[in-house]
Amino acid sequence: MIRRRSFARRLIQVEIPVLLVLAFALAPFAWMLLTSIKPNGDLSHFPVRYLPSSSTFEHYRTLIQRTSFPVNLLNSLVIACGAVLLGLATSVPAAYSFSRFRFRGRRMLMTGFLVINMFPIVLLIIPLFVLMRTLGLIDTFLGVIIGHSTFSIPFSIWMLVSYFNAIPRDLDEAATIDGASRLQTIRLVVLPLVMPGIVTTAIYVFITSWNEYLFAMMLSGETVRPVTVALQLFIGEFTVQWGILTAGGTIIALPVTILFLFVQKRLVGGLTAGAVKS
Amino acid sequence: MNKVTASSATLRASTPYGFLLPALLVTALVILFPVLQTAWFSLHDYILYDPDNSRFVGLRNFAVALSDEVFWIALLNSAIWVTGIVSLQLLLGLVAALLLNQSFWWRGLARALVIIPWALPSVIIGLMWTWIYDFNLGVFNDILLRIGLISAPHPWLAQPSTALACIMLALVWQGFPFFTVTILAGLQTVPPELYEAAEIDGASAWRQFIHVTLPSIAGIVATAVLLRIIWVANSLDVILVMTGGGPGYATHTLPLYAFLRAYTGMEFGYAASLSLMLTAILLGIVWLYVRRQTGELEK
Description:
The structure holds two protein chains of two kinds.
Chain A: H1 2-36, H2 40-43, H3 58-66, H4 69-100, H5 106-116, H6 121-135, H7 141-165, H8 169-177, H9 182-211, H10 214-219, H11 227-237, H12 242-274
Chain B: H1 15-42, H2 60-66, H3 69-100, H4 107-114, H5 116-119, H6 122-132, H7 139-146, H8 160-187, H9 192-200, H10 205-234, H11 237-242, H12 254-263, H13 268-298
Helix pairs in contact in B: 1-13, 3-8, 3-10, 3-12, 6-8, 8-10, 10-13, 12-13
């Protein structure tokens, strides 16, 4: 009897409120998914039809066969991979340096990278546009990737420093005593241990770059246009074609959402240790 | 503090800088140089399509901004935007974190699913919510009509009185999971003994929350709030997608106004001075944050 009551109480005090929060968190996303598989008749049906009368993939087909969307997807992939590579190539050595050396200006530089995280994008976007135009990098992958390094580098450094710090220094010392050079120590001891942290950082930079819109919009043209910008342009083009737009939204959101679910636990650890912007 | 490895003593003192060099070079190119250039632009009446005719105007751009009606509208909207969004996100995030910290058998799944809004691109957020607010076919009007709160559909995004609040709701939705996960991380550091002791002293659940839970998570909440203020104050892509700043100036915020002056007006000088003013305001907040953060680095 007592056990039954406590079960009912837990249902009311915990599980039902959690369900309400989840409904709030997921409903708009679910609505987008449902819309993307509804036939056009359901979409323009008044009053609103919540469940599709029959499911269809016509919007996905239209998007893939009749628009530039597949090219835009590929562009997004190239840009995000580029942002990850440039970000890691510069921030892994930097984070190692911050974690393993004590040198003049260390605190100042670390604080500097932290503050950079907080600069308004509008502050950077205007001169970056002029700079890229001068360098002839507008509408090139390199231009957009360099633009994305404004957030990928400071963010990665902050995440990675906390991961490097988590590796005991005794291990480096032991390797040194065994006669390993610094580069050997890094390659054979430190890097393998910090790899999970690097992967987490890489995935998060990938997601941020994949989701990014303003830099991409300013720095890309038709050639390297990523999906976020393309979708925004579609909004103007097919004003009422919600089926196509939500299909595009689903294609963009689903892969990164799944990636995000994989890294979220480790990410929160890195975030609370390093503390960076979202 | 200055514990160095045996080998580094023999290495040149420049080694740490060598490792930093690539990051510093790229950062100087994409951040330092642009910031200096913004400062330079702000002192000129630089128009993008006519750069040769740009003249040095001193602080005139700033003076113009101060007497620019739209600047003040945008500043006010920014204040409403930041306080409204961050406080609602915090409240909702806290409630969700406290709920998800209880034990129930599908807790892991619930914790994973609740962060989905945070992972979505802003363009998708803007698109989804524009569709939800649609006058005829939007689900928002439909639900309100069905439960009888309104008697006729309302053009939520086209009406100046409701547009800003509606976009704010979308941003609250997007960002509350950030608070949920950070507060959850904080809650896990609270030693269970504290609750046991409070229990023995006969403290009610509410008093336990006020005297044990809140003080324990205060630090992490403060950091999260500061980060979020800066992020929300800078964000403009959702507004850009949903209303583009309209109707009229109803959804203009400061970064959006600067962006529109640069992007559609090509008035880079004026836009630069607007974004510098935004930066100055945010630097005050950043300063608070950095002081806090370097305090924690010392530990």
